[in-house]
Amino acid sequence: MTGARVAVVGIHGHGASHVRNVARLAAAGRAELVAVADPRGGGDLPPDVRVFGGLDELLAATRVDVVVICTPIQTHVPLAELAMRAGADVLLEKPPTASMVEFEQLSAVVAETGRALQVGFQAQASEATLKLAAMMAEGRLGEIRGISAVGKWVRKAQYFQRARWSGKRRLDGVDVVDGAVTNPLAHATAAALLLDGSTGVDDVRSIETELYRANPIESDDTSSVRITTSRGTPILIAVTLCAVEHLEATVIVHGSEGRAVLTYQSDLIGDTKYGRADLLENLLAHRADPGVPLYVPLAATGGFTRVVEAVRTAADPVEIPGELVRWEGEGLERRPILLDVEKWIDRASDELALFSEIGAPWAVRSPGESS
Ligand SMILES: NC(=O)c1ccc[n+]([C@@H]2O[C@H](COP(=O)([O-])OP(=O)(O)OC[C@H]3O[C@@H](n4cnc5c(N)ncnc54)[C@H](O)[C@@H]3O)[C@@H](O)[C@H]2O)c1
Question: Hey, is 308 helix, strand or coil?
């Protein structure tokens, strides 16, 4: 048995990890990597894998069951549509779409073609995330005062220079929305929404955004966002790519009977380690038996996409004054460090408050920040 015929689209960035994952499943006889598509050509691939410059050529030449899409955000919808109309199921990287309109378009294609589409929010398949959601639903943390998502990350010039779309809000007239909240730290928001049971498009009542940047980019690298879900939970996102040191992101649940910290990249609640299901394996299991639910169907990213839409339509990020930023490194290693950003993020998280509400020195209210 060789298993499902899988193609990976976009293989030179994060897509390399998808190629390795399909190779792992191939070794177990559960999948076969038949082809890849990337305008930059092939790379370190198993023998017999066909290489194409684009997905259209690939689909014209090869029959595939599943297409894994790991390309720039603005290419997600056309590529996913192409794959589903050709009869393939799709694992699409996050964020699935750059706008609400695109989300609706893609949802319509899923409905019309009847294909399965899983979104690459791997933390949603973590037993730690699901266990914490269950603990909350059972009332084990008491009444939930709110949820916060904290990201203190480091990104250097190399990250923003690796591709044309990096750090862009729009490119060539098309929405990209590649900012800290919507792309690198997207899992934090998505996990917080899942914990609240608010993943659907109608599960979000309001979104306030405060977007800032220290890097010479279009999009935000330091932001606070408050989502109020339909059930009334405040979810406060406080993130930066300009930290002193790179720490794992956390999602913190503030309950009347206690506080729980989810470190989703390591599948931890507090210090307790959990397992994690693989999203491609889950998609293959769902193909074999539609009774097996997907961990992250497109519909379960509707609430997250409301946040993308709020960031997309917000005013451009406000540049942080130079006196609050220290620059380190040269060339591709160069990076900004925002003064005391860790302290302000922790306060925002504890108080479920936006940067401007706690008086962070870079925070000024600007028009168009709410939706
Ligand atoms: N799930 C995760 O934890 C995670 C981590 C990193 C990135 N991502 C997501 O993966 C996607 C890609 O991010 P990246 O950082 O690897 O981007 P990247 O720009 O570094 O790499 C993208 C790759 O896609 C190729 N490509 C571009 N346009 C293409 C097209 N039309 N058809 C085929 N290939 C094309 C590029 O040549 C490149 O090899 C994004 O959606 C990103 O958010 C997810």
Answer: helix
